[in-house]
User: Which sequence fits this backbone?
């Protein structure tokens, strides 16, 4: 041991404290840098030197500069960020949907429904008044516009969400590309793992990017021995050391609507989302928006069907020389066939033993429309039918699992048709004589099958009963056309107990089949005299007008349990409830993330007060080391000058 050894000891102290001061300054400089983790210099005593029977210390060594970080906490924070991204996406969707029902201006759907029924009540009071007729048609047009506006906005929101998915995929590609580049830089800076703390700032940047990526999609990370981080979504690699996978979107169709699904460009494998903004967006596109649009369509269909049932069986100021139905159906298959679920062998297969006996392929190309159960109101296309077992193969599964006993119809028509009949009334406009023919609609599945009414058999029955006065034909596109045989003959309908006239669209008030297509029938709009105010030829008959008004309070929806207004209020209430629930989930998740953020800040964040104390500590230590060196220098001077 010598005094010169003490000089080296002082040098190690100066070097170590200088590194600590510089690191403290680096922390202070990055106190507001997002994602920055405070750093600390690992100081360790240098192994002592033997001096006689003991060891004397040789100073301090500045080891690695490490980040103060909890990798487990970082992972929890990323998971929380993914859940928050999904929750915010769905909450935003419900908030926009809820806004569609805000009737502040008095021009929304609720106001339009009310105005339509008020106009019907006015017509009931003045059935022969042309102004009252025109008013009801105008309010019907306004109601149709209100339905279409809500539906168009929903579709536009769905398209906007698809655009956000595509933009989100582009953002994921940017983030994974930058993560791969950072992996390469970190591996190079840390010499493949030999210097594990050499790239602290690059690691902080990588951590911030991982959290940004987690906001888009749920991820799992695995760090390698070289310092690179592999990033997985499900079991597929988004980032593998220095390379990144490229994502794209694949267009799929769900309920006739486009859905942009993230997938790997190289393999076409769909991205396993799990959570994150993309998962929330896709859930909104596939579930939330379609469910709401289905409910809106159910309401629109209910209004169309109930109003058309009255209009089609009523009498206006004029009768008809010729009519063609608005809706088409294959002429040779039953108009509608009722079935009951007895088994669901697979997600797209439904078995109904009460359909066994119909020839194979009878229902191919028709729609299965659910009447009861969890899927009530939903439609699926029939791809194949096995007559031996009564098994239907559908184009896609229903939202919920079928239960035994769920009832459905198989039809091509937009509205239900049941076993019953309607009257065809032919009026001689010269003499006023009225001849009535009752046309049966047989849908009781009597043996031998198939025996139920088809469009062709309805046309044949009309010709058989009233062929001397009118002629019924099926057009090339599957519509029913009825034409009077003489200029003096005119016809109308009455007493439809089957719903056939409203379903096929003969003498309709509304055309269309849902909220997107509803409109006032063009022939009625052009000639308000066609509007049915009564059920007889009498000019003061207001029976049909009263029936229009009675729709407001008739329990005609949800299997006879709800009125039109009940259904609307239930729809708006359910939407408000789900919107509040989504907002609560987003708020709760935001609170949880804030807690995790605060926990990370306490551990890894820069506390300026603490850094100021550290700075003073290292400053004093540096000054003491300098004083120590000065003391050793004095001793050396004394020793040298005394020789």
Assistant:
């Amino acid at each position: 041991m010598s005094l010169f050894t003490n000089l080296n000891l002082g040098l190690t102290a100066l070097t170590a404290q200088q590194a600590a001061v510089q690191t403290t300054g680096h922390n202070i400089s990055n106190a507001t840098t997002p994602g920055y983790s405070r750093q600390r210099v690992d100081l360790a005593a240098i192994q002592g030197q033997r001096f006689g029977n003991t060891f004397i210390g040789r100073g301090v060594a500045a080891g690695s500069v490490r980040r103060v970080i909890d990798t487990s906490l970082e992972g929890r924070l990323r998971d929380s960020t993914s859940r928050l991204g999904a929750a915010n996406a769905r909450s935003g969707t419900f908030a926009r949907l809820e806004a569609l029902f805000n009737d502040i201006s008095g021009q929304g759907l609720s106001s339009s429904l009310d105005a339509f029924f008020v106009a019907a009540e006015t017509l009931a009071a003045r059935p022969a008044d042309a102004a009252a007729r025109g008013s009801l048609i105008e309010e019907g047009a306004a109601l149709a516009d209100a339905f279409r506006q809500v539906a168009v906005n929903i579709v536009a929101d769905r398209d906007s969400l698809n655009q956000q998915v595509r933009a989100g995929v582009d953002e994921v590609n940017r983030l994974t590309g930058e993560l791969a580049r950072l992996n390469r830089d970190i591996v190079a800076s840390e010499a493949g793992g030999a210097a594990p703390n050499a790239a602290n700032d690059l690691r902080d940047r990588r951590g911030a990017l991982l959290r940004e990526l987690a906001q888009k999609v749920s991820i799992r990370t695995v760090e390698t021995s070289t310092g690179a981080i592999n990033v997985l979504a499900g079991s597929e690699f988004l980032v593998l050391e220095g390379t990144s996978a490229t994502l794209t979107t694949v267009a799929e169709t769900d309920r006739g609507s486009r859905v942009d699904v993230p997938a790997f460009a190289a393999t076409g494998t769909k991205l396993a989302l799990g959570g994150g903004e993309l998962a929330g967006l896709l859930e909104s596109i596939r579930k939330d928006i379609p469910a709401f649009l289905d409910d809106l369509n159910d309401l629109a269909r209910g209004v169309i069907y109930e109003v058309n049932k009255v209009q089609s069986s009523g009498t206006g100021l004029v009768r008809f020389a010729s009519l063609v139905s608005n809706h088409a159906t294959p002429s040779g298959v039953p108009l509608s066939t009722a079935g009951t679920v007895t088994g669901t062998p697979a997600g797209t297969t439904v078995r109904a033993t009460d359909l066994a006996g119909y020839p194979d392929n009878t229902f191919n190309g028709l729609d299965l429309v659910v009447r009861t159960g969890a899927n009530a109101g939903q439609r699926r296309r029939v791809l194949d039918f096995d007559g031996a077992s009564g098994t239907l193969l559908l184009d896609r599964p229903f939202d919920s699992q079928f239960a035994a006993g769920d009832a459905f119809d198989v039809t091509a028509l937009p509205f239900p048709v049941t076993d019953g009949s309607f009257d065809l009334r032919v009026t001689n406009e010269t003499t006023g004589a009225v001849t009535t023919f009752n046309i049966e609609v047989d849908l009781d599945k009597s043996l031998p099958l198939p025996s139920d009414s088809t469009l062709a058999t309805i046309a044949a029955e009309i010709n058989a009963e009233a062929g001397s006065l009118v002629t019924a034909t099926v057009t090339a596109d599957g519509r029913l056309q009825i034409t009077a045989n003489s200029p003096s003959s005119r016809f109308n309908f009455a007493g439809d107990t089957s719903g056939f006239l409203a379903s096929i669209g003969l003498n309709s008030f509304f055309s269309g089949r849902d909220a997107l297509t509803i409109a006032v029938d063009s022939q009625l709009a052009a000639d308000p005299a066609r509007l049915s105010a009564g059920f007889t030829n009498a000019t003061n008959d207001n029976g049909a007008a009263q029936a229009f008004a009675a729709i407001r309070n008739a329990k005609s929806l949800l299997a006879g349990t709800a009125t039109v207004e009940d259904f609307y209020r239930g729809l708006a209430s359910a939407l408000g409830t789900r919107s509040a629930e989504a907002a609560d989930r987003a708020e709760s998740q935001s609170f949880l993330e804030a807690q995790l953020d605060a926990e990370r800040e306490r551990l890894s964040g820069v506390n300026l007060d603490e850094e100021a104390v550290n700075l003073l500590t290292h400053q004093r230590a540096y000054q003491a080391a300098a004083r120590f060196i000065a003391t050793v220098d004095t001793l050396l001077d004394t020793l040298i000058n005394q020789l």
Remarks:
- Residues 296-541 form one domain.
- The radius of gyration is 39 Å.
- Residues 130-189 form the longest helix (60 residues).
- The mean pLDDT is 90.
